[in-house]
Fold this protein.
Amino acid sequence: MDATLRRRGLLVERILDADLGAVVLGPGPDLRYLTGWDVHESERPTLLVVPGRGTPVLVVPALEAPRARADAELAGVDLRSYGETDDPLAAAVAAVPATGAVAVGDRLWSTTTLDLQAHLPGRVTERASRVTAPLRAVKDAEELVALREVAAAIDAVHRRVPGLLRPGRTEAEVAADLAALIREDHDEVAFVIVAAGPNAASPHHHPGARPLALGDAVVVDIGGPLRGYHSDMTRTYHLGPPPPGTVEAYAVLEAARDAGVAAVRPGVTAEEVDAAARAVMTAAGLGDAFLHRTGHGIGLEVHEPPWIVAGEGTVLAPGMTFSVEPGYYLAGRTGARIEDIVAVTADGVEVLNREPRGLRVVA
Ligand code: ZN
Ligand code: ZN
Ligand code: ZN
């Protein structure tokens, strides 16, 4: 059975369990997960309606119908198209059962959501993620293959980072080189963070005109999708000998990363993984410098559930994939982060990124 047909079946079970009438999705990761189709949102709505009972319908503007037929996996799905002067929502609304709450895609444009509400008064009351997020959080075998493959691709880019770092080159120049390397083995570039010296204290720093200088820590956080599945990997490099205290702080960071990864296994909650990494940082006096959650789920989106953060009670299950990425950020001075993607296995953890994690001094 093809993967998307199986996923649509699992979604219907969840729709019925949740007592929903239907789920209505626009373009985006949920739709791609359920049909394999990577289509962009536009002013002409594309909508997948999955009812609890009845036949799913994919509604597209007429000009997109050839592409939908070619690119979407539609076994058991009716394809309907509408013309330029038709009500674009009529076919979608007709596919929604007469009763039951309607859950709409979290990323559906509000224009479409408001029009749907007008057609279905009082019924559009839920977010689709209530039923799609738990499904997407547990990767199937072919998704895990894709995530391993893209992790290996970004490992290969990190192997080439030391050759790009030289005093006098700007963050932006290094970032442009990295973007070109990422494109070699990814569909596209999702993000490139090169944060040097004091800029390393900003976790999501945008690479700029600052030239690299001897003594800089250089945080390199890069990623992109391959066949839709994302990589996201951080290593911290050091240009020339690190100043006093850096080696010690970085050793704490590595220990925190190791403790986070070691905590990963089925049955543990997401927040316990965060606590395991954070405890190491806090014990060494770096708790306040660890500004963000320990990690995030990853798949068709760079950031998706489960969130590895205090208060997140999600119980880890085999097939969940997420980052473990402790960091420390000392404003005006320096920063560092280590980020690996991990997968929960039947009895523990698989680390998808393989490159060494120690502080790499680039002479
Ligand atoms: Zn981030
Ligand atoms: Zn990252
Ligand atoms: Zn990340």
Residues 198 and 334 are 5 Å apart (CA to CA). The mean pLDDT is 97. The radius of gyration is 23 Å. The chain has two domains: 3-136, 141-362.
